[in-house]
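This is your field. Please look over both lines of this record.
***
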Amino acid sequence: YFLSNNGVLFANYFNKIVEYKRSELKMFHPLLIARYYATIIFNNALNNESIDVVDEAVNAIRALRKHSEHGEFVPTAEYVYARALILTGAQGVAMEILQHDSTCIQHIIPAAAQQGFVNQYRLLQLYAGYHDGHISEQNAIKQLQSIEEEPFYFLSQDFFTLLLLNLRRQLLPKALVNTIDRQVNVLVQKTGFNFFEKKEELDNIAKSA
């Protein structure tokens, strides 16, 4: 609902999620913890609130490596949380937690979906790294071309294609922007993810990261 900018439905589910206190989270699976904190930072972005949980979330997820029977899921939880950070402009923190080799999530992903998830992880690393200044424009273009040669996982393909197209808008010649915008519009109509239509906001997120 964040991507479709549906504040009413988002608030409905947000209020249910935050009924769980943060002190209860240590009993949760790492992926649920990542989604819990992602929901809070999405709420901050939608409502201009400032509940600062970014560092708390990173520490809570990483602590699970030692104290959770599901510690092997921590890289995937970081991947889920980093996606939310990128969408809300916290590129630097996203880059910090995406320091693993992109194959780190392979062992818990079904074989048929591994390549798609690895490619998505690579795109998140590129998006955060470029906007945080860790990756030069020239290197970013090369990495983008490499990512475009591989598929995304089919269930999340549209979202990651929209993220990729937004990065293309910023990296490729302006002569291609109209073509990219048309591709974005087709996918927005298909998915309802009108978050990606807010080009100025997306550019401002990138510039402020």
Q: What stands out?
A: The chain has a mean pLDDT of 87. The chain has ten helices and no strands. The CA atoms of residues 112 and 153 lie 9 Å apart. The longest helix spans residues 30-47.
